[in-house]
Amino acid sequence: MAPKRPRSAGAFPKPVEPTATVPAEKGELYAALDLGTNSCRMLIARPKGDQFQVVDSFSKAVQLGQGLEASGRLSRSSMARTVQALQICRRKIESHGVKRMRLVATEACRRAGNARDFIRYVRRETGLPLEIIPPEEEARLAVISCASLVSPRTEQVLVVDIGGGSTELVWIDISKVPPADRARAIMRMSGAGGFRALEGPEPSARVVDWISVPLGVATLKDQFADVEDDAARFALMSWYFEEKLADFTPYSSGSPQEGFQIIGTSGTVTTVAACHLGLKRYDRTRVDGLAMSSAQIDAVIRRFLQLGPEGRRADPRIGRDRHTLIMSGAAILQALMRVWPTDRMSVADRGLREGLLYAQMAADGVLEEMGPI
């Protein structure tokens, strides 16, 4: 039986994260928390028409996966840091009276031998129902959060989510979907069918292949921490990541000449975009949805290499929390541009949290249906 399509599957949430807490209006609030290898991030939002409005947010680099590459376990110090951050999230959830929430952990907890003990520790100390999700669900949620960036001219789309511990790539064929309905066809993946094509009268987005590479900005950096030369370390990271793409079906075929679009979502991608724009202060409205070419991305990465470790540390556009991770992320990005060069990589300042919010709201049918794009 075909999965039932949520009543809100045509809606396109376009959240704008506020700089301060927004006073609550009437309407049930939803929370979404993404606990990754490096960061703990949460959004609290309410449905608003065919979108949702972010009411409160939280983000902190907790480095949950620190030392995981060597030991295979989450350390006591990293778990303690993470629980402190989760206590703040709990207080925000309680202060807003949030009842509907989904709080998920990803690659670090998937790999750690003591992950189940950590989940119990979180429940005991915070009361939060943290769950570990599989790579396919992580990839699917990132895909639906980016759907509104899909151009009507796009026939093949590659969605890339560069995380702290893993990188998800999803290749989607929407060539048989009418141009005006292509973004909406991707949104329909929020249903229970996941990456399986939805049956029915409406043309479906087809997932050609997807892969979760167990290398993200933190884990790739750790793999080459013993290489002292900055440029050599970058080159080794980039080629090493490309080797991991060998089993990805579209790897050998390269990128189509027409109707091809890459959508990149991650702190790496948004940082590269902000540096390309020369922003002294990060502006989400200018970054989210920006289209960059392979040549523009390469130019930013070359500047990162010219700066060196000390220069990157002092550059306010990169940020204190990201300067040690930006080159491993850039190595992944350069590998992708080498394999699939494009003039249309769309930058997405959105990802797993937005996908979690949309999926909850769509399942509850609280988003209004959106008309033709």
From TrEMBL:
It holds the Pfam family Ppx-GppA. GO terms for molecular function: pyrophosphatase activity. InterPro entries: ATPase_NBD (IPR043129), GppA/Ppx_hydrolase (IPR050273), Ppx_GppA_N (IPR003695). SUPFAM superfamilies: Actin-like ATPase domain. Residues 44-361 form the Ppx/GppA phosphatase N-terminal domain. It comes from the Bacteria. This is Ppx/GppA family phosphatase. It comes from Paenirhodobacter hankyongi.
